[in-house]
Write a sequence for this structure.
């Protein structure tokens, strides 16, 4: 595909956003306070634990800055997102559905936590994807049953807070339980947020934060998602036991096991959007940040965005250039058996709605470089996207019915690939609207 100038600009703007939330830089600038805390606190050992898609870059920065202060550590990231570390053991596992490698990594993390004591300083480096990678199923719940439940929730279009509510209550590490296992050590967590509102108990399912949700809430999510009849009995039995007090709840606000925990957000979607704004301004665009909390079903969001784009273009004067920026995380209710992700689905619906219209371009992509179970971050579209595809015999509506946006774009044009970025602060949409002339 030959990129138009607006398409090239969307890529440049997206790249600027990524640079602002690079995990390496975010952690490097915060290591001085770790050194000071370790020195003044008279600690005898420094452990490092990392989980998420940004784990490698975060650990690399920690190793370079802390050096021999690090006693030992374990990091787990998604397959293909790791690298060579020296003081910290780097492990890889599956995402978004956990696997046996994730379980093995979880057990290693638990063993390390058992070695911690009052004179231990534990540095936790948390990023998006941590919920799937911090795998330690609760007693009586198998990995397969947990995977099936997660898959059912994902396909039902559950919001991230709903999904993580269930995952927290089926885990020995999530929902503050990591901090509970590490008590009475001191914990400092640096966190890259991949959730709307930066809620600490939702990011990576809150391993070091108080949990606001309950077992009853988890059961309510399963009811709301209409998956109860398909949910494994072991999962329902465990959640039910917890709801009537037969299983200990996750640590709540005020719990003493969290007294020596400090959680700090070091990167999020808002920071990325601000950098995108600066780049767009430098490229000569008038810029508006519409929201950093975009949510809802991808197809409905795309339709609304398309209507707004058409409306805004009508008011554009000759030669005027407008860039609308948004971020967040939509969902997709999977009804077909195709291949795709929320960004590609959003982009394809948007492209279909602006078919034949000039002066409108959209890039929608995940900041982690992965959209669903694909090798693409998202897609770039304009008014010619669907017309060009139709010339090749491709019908956008057929692909959408089968949730097969990836194959639509791969067989026509528009796939946006970055490779693993090492970060994850949700998704970003860059929309360019140009006036005639």
């Amino acid at each position: 595909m030959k990129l138009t100038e607006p398409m090239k600009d969307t890529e440049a703007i997206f790249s600027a956003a990524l640079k602002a939330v690079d995990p390496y830089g975010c952690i490097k600038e915060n290591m001085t306070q770790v050194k000071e805390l370790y020195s003044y606190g008279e600690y005898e050992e420094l452990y490092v634990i990392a989980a998420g898609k940004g784990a490698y870059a975060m650990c690399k920065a920690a190793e370079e800055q802390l050096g021999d202060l690090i006693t030992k550590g374990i990091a787990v990231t998604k397959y293909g997102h790791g690298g060579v570390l020296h003081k910290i053991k780097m492990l890889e596992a599956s995402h978004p559905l956990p696997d046996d490698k994730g379980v093995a990594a979880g057990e290693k993390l638990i063993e390390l936590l058992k070695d911690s004591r009052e004179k231990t300083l534990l540095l936790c480096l948390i990023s998006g994807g941590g919920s799937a990678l911090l795998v330690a199923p609760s007693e009586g719940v198998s990995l397969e049953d947990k995977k099936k439940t997660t898959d059912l929730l994902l396909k039902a279009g559950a919001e991230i807070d709903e999904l993580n509510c269930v995952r927290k209550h089926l885990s020995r590490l999530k929902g503050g339980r990591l901090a509970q296992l590490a008590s009475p050590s001191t914990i400092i967590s640096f966190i890259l947020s991949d959730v709307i509102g930066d809620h600490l108990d939702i990011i990576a399912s809150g391993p070091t934060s108080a949990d606001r949700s309950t077992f009853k809430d988890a059961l309510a999510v399963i009811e709301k998602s209409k998956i109860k009849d398909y949910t494994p009995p072991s999962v329902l039995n465990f959640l039910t036991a917890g709801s009537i007090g037969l299983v200990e709840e996750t640590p709540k606000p005020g719990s003493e096991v969290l007294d020596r925990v400090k959680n700090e957000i070091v990167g999020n979607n808002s920071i990325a959007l601000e950098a995108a704004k600066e780049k767009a301004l430098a490229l000569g665009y008038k810029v508006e940040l519409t929201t950093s909390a975009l949510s809802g079903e991808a197809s409905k969001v795309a339709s609304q965005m398309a209507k707004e784009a058409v409306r805004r273009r009508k008011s554009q004067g000759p030669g005027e250039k407008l860039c609308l920026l948004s971020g967040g995380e939509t969902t997709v209710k999977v009804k077909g058996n195709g291949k795709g992700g929320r960004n590609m689905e959003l982009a394809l619906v948007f492209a279909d709605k602006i078919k034949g219209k000039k002066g409108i371009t959209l890039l929608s992509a995940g900041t982690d470089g992965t959209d669903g179970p694909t090798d693409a971050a998202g897609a770039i579209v304009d008014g010619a996207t669907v017309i060009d595809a139709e010339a090749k015999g491709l019908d956008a509506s057929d692909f959408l019915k089968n949730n097969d946006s990836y194959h639509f774009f791969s067989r026509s044009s528009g796939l946006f690939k970055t490779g693993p970025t090492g970060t994850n602060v949700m998704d970003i949409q860059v929309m360019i609207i140009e006036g005639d002339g």
